[in-house]
Amino acid sequence: MTHILAIDQGTTSSRALLFDPDMQVLRQSQREFTQHFPRSGWVEHDAEEIWDSTLATAKDAAGDAQIAAIGITNQRETTLVWDKTTGKAIHNAIVWQDRRTSDLCARLKEAGHEPMVTEKTGLLLDPYFSGTKIAWLLDNVEGARAKAEAGDLLFGTVDSFLIWRLTEGKAHVTDATNAARTMAYDIRKGQWSTTMLDLLGIPAAMMPEVLDSAAEFGTTTLLGGEVPILGVAGDQQAATVGQACFEPGMMKSTYGTGCFALLNTGEKPSFSKNRLLTTIAYQLDGKPTYALEGSIFIAGAVVQWLRDGLKIIGDARETQALAEAADENAELVLVPAFTGLGAPYWDSECRGAIYGLTRAAGRAEMAKAALESVGFQTRDLLEAMQKDYASSPETVLRVDGGMTASDWTMQFLADILGAPVDRPETLETTALGAAWLAGMKAGIYPDQAGFAATWKLDRQFSPAMDDAIRDERYAKWRDAVARTLTR
Q: What share of the chain is helix, strand, coil (3-state, %, to 5)?
């Protein structure tokens, strides 16, 4: 048994990929699922639809292959609470993009709790994270708090919920990278913080056991035979692993629904002075490796908006040709704050805005502004990281995710950063990271050094924009953001 099944449960779809002994994808399966928007700023998923789509794609991808182990990577921060007896969620999953707990976060800030939150968890008081979502569920679902206090309810991020279902209720576990995104985990002590649980009113009995990213998470019989789950990491950490960013100073950025840049800072956490997050990149053999992270809520989702909201494109691939055809003199700036702005601004109340509209602006100019917004936001993150962490003199950004297939977007990214952008041959880095964790634990795949040696460059995009133009373009972006922020 030398094949590894990677489950990649994302924000808009569930996927499963079958990897061979050489870490090559043999086949894959994918199913989109429904996005629920019950109110402005609220985003939910049906827990059963997450499970059904995950199990179906896992069975499709696995086929009749002999699976040695399963690796799981997942949308992070998305919050589920379920009944310990029935396994049924008490409410739709509250998605990481959801902003319903903005008022609670504001009250906690006003009470002076944010410095303590950051010191213990590495995070900021923001609705993005799981902690306040758990509190909302306990306070707003009838009978939930009493059941939780009686020990009848369990909490989990998506990985934990899937493992519970895959093991048919035998394992209530998570890994350190997912635990670090809950705002309830002490990232230095490596345990749930009683201070944070008390602050948020969360019974400790609800919380899963926290394991390494490569560990024995349980066994499933739902795919034929007994198959162990040996690797788990949140999607951005899995991509960091998949990009082999194992050395301090190495940096990757993933362009999916959102954009998330992680900078490996080594064995000790580096706390940001520029409103970045301190998180766990991965944990092996009981030793966490830390990272600075910048989170952008809207990246690929802005292209979805062009397609599904404005309906000015039929397919995401159309945006490159439109951007190439756009008027070079157009000065459209799109700030895609559809669910607020993440790092380094952390304004959950601001909303999207477009500046510089003229009668000449059309589909092409809108598409160009949408793609450029991703580059501008990435520069925001990179500048903050460079202030916080003295890395190598020349930053090289390793990229992955769906948007990296666009040469135009990647060239603009290199231009606006003024730094090289490396696109690997393997773009499935998130699933690869989960597969490697499981395969390495199973003794099938190489160790860190051996895995890093397999990373191969597809293309390096080098900056070609004049420095003066770069600075002028970025200054206009910063001005647009300043006009959009609510504080």
A: 35, 25, 40
